[in-house]
Amino acid sequence: MDNILEVSGLRKSYGNFALKDVAFSLPEGCITGFIGVNGAGKTTTLRTLLRLTDKEAGTIRFFGLDMEQNEKQIKDRLGIVLDDGCFYEELTLSEMKSIIAPAYTAWSERDFKQYMDMFSLDPKQKINTLSKGMRMKYALALALSHEAELLIMDEPTSGLDPLVRSQLLKILTDYMSKGGKGVFFSTHITSDLDKIADMLIMIDNGSIVFQEEKDALLDTYRIVKGDVRALTPDLRKLFLNISETAFGFTGITKQVAEVQRLLPDAMIERPTIEDIMLGNIERGNK
Amino acid sequence: MLLHLVKKDFLIVKKYVLIMLVAAIAIPPVMLWRAPEYGGVMGFILSVIFAVFMLLQYVSLKEYQCPKASALLCAAPYPRRLLVLSKYIFCMLIYAICCLIFGIETIVATQLGTLRLDALALMFLITAIVVGLYLPTQYKLGYEKTKFAFVVIIMASPVLTAALLKMDGMNFDTLLMAPPIFVYGGMILAGVVFLIISACLSIKFYNKVDLA
Asked: Could you tell me if residue A140 is inside a domain?
């Protein structure tokens, strides 16, 4: 499988925050979730990838092409959904489209109309009258109407109700079914990724914590519950984080077999992506 | 692509375009009616200043109010260079429209005089200088700081103009003795050169801007 995006040694600093040698790759045909808490560096990474801000070091290659030398050609093949739409509020949907569409060589008016009908959007409606969900759908209609090969979205599900979020996930699944596509979306709502992501990349405090296939990742970690009195110092070292109460402890570990050997009576559960994300963050904060 | 970005600037201030159009049409005859001694070319100069700078201000205000929209355009295949150049073309297009309006008015109302090359050249140079100073400053300092700086300049302009007029050694006689075609051609050429240098600076500054 070819990589649709390859990032290496990416650095960017703002005051007391910095991206530190960020490196990852996106394989073609995958929905990749870019996870991390607020302020972890997700938006900065996406903005740097799109050259909305200058990087200090590193290389960015989309479709095997260097971003610095082929920016226009690459952007022509990307679909972009930025958080909250990023539109001129007083324009109508049709007027905003008339600004965006000429930038793309493969713009399809037919596809755009189809998406507008599918999302029940009125081209004459003003952008400032749209709900958050409708804005996101409109942003998707713009991003998907020019045969984009990679869809990049920054927090698309943030602030959306469960129904719209589930519609969005369905649209992404349909988009991927066309083949030869990729989706890269940042989010801190990990439950959406439980449903559709193939690959997960986690960033924390400006550094990549892991990049793994979702199923492999979920198989690697386990939540362990047991009696606090059984927690020896050696056992504690096997956990990413432990929360303790008077009734017992709950911890997350990658070393399941070793924990099971030392604590045969412990209760073992499969974690969610959020459990893994929080476990890694808390380990980083120790 | 460039023309679509110019269209974008007109679209985001569409509410004000009609008002400015009416102002550009009305100012010369109103000036002639209320202050005949300043009618004609002075009305034209005022209409250009009013239309160009008010609309440019409104565009800048709208861009300032929707900063993420510029990010979306730059995330699309629009080069930043074109976003900058579209602003210059936008201003010069308004100048051209004002010239056209005044030209038609002078045909309809002969009391307004004629639209001469000297007025066109002088107004082009003035527009080029102000736009050429304003846009790079805005790309470098941002909308708020630039607005403040220009308010200070506008407030200081009566004092500065008076001081300039009192300065000894300012003699334009030699310049006026040159053939008019050279004088006015020189003004237009100077305006164009000023705009080119200004646009290069604006592009350089905007390429460094972190978009929201």
From this structure: yes
- Whether residue B62 and residue A98 make contact (CB cut-off 8 A), yes or no, is no
Question: Helix crossing, B41-65 with B143-166: angle to 10°?
Answer: 160
Helices then strands, each counted (H, E), chain A: 11, 14
A45 is a domain residue: yes
Do the chains contact at B4 and A102, CB–CB below 8 Å?
yes
Whether the CB-CB separation of B115 and B44 falls below 8 Å is answered with yes
Test A82 with B74 for CB contact under 8 angstroms.
Answer: no
Taking the C-alpha atoms of residue B185 and residue B193, their distance in angstroms, rounded to an integer, is: 12
Total domains present in chain A: 2
Burial A164-179 (b: 16+ CB within 10 A, else e): bbebbbebbeebbeee
A160-215 pLDDT tens trace: 788 888 888 888 888 888 888 899 989 888 888 888 889 999 999 999 999 999 99
For residues A246 and A182, state if they share a domain. no
For A5, half-sphere exposure in the C-beta direction (CA atoms, 13 angstrom radius) is 29
CATH number for the domain spanning A203: value is 3.40.50.300
**DSSP single-letter state for residue A69:** T
The residue ranges of every structural domain in chain B are: 2-207
Q: Is the ipTM of this complex over 0.90?
A: no
In a shared domain, residues A193 and A76: yes
C-beta of residue A67 within 8 angstroms of C-beta of residue A49: yes
Cα dihedral B140/B141/B142/B147 (nearest 10)? -120
A156 occurs within a structural domain:
yes
| Full domain range(s) for residue A32 | 3-214
Under the banding of pLDDT at 50, 70 and 90, the label for residue A95 is very high
Residues A209 and A233 in one domain: no
Helices (H), B66-179: 67-75, 80-108, 117-141, 143-166, 173-177
Cβ neighbours around B203 below 10 Å, total: 18
pTM for this model (two decimals): 0.85
Place of tokens 């690959």: A199
Residue A156's φ and ψ, nearest 5 degrees, are -70, -25
CA distance A209 to A271: 17
pLDDT averages per 10-residue partition of chain B, 212 residues: 92 90 87 76 83 90 89 94 96 93 86 79 90 93 85 73 63 66 86 96 93 77
Chain B contact residues (CB < 8 Å to A): 1, 4-5, 7-8, 11-12, 15, 62, 65-66, 68-69, 71-79, 208, 210-211
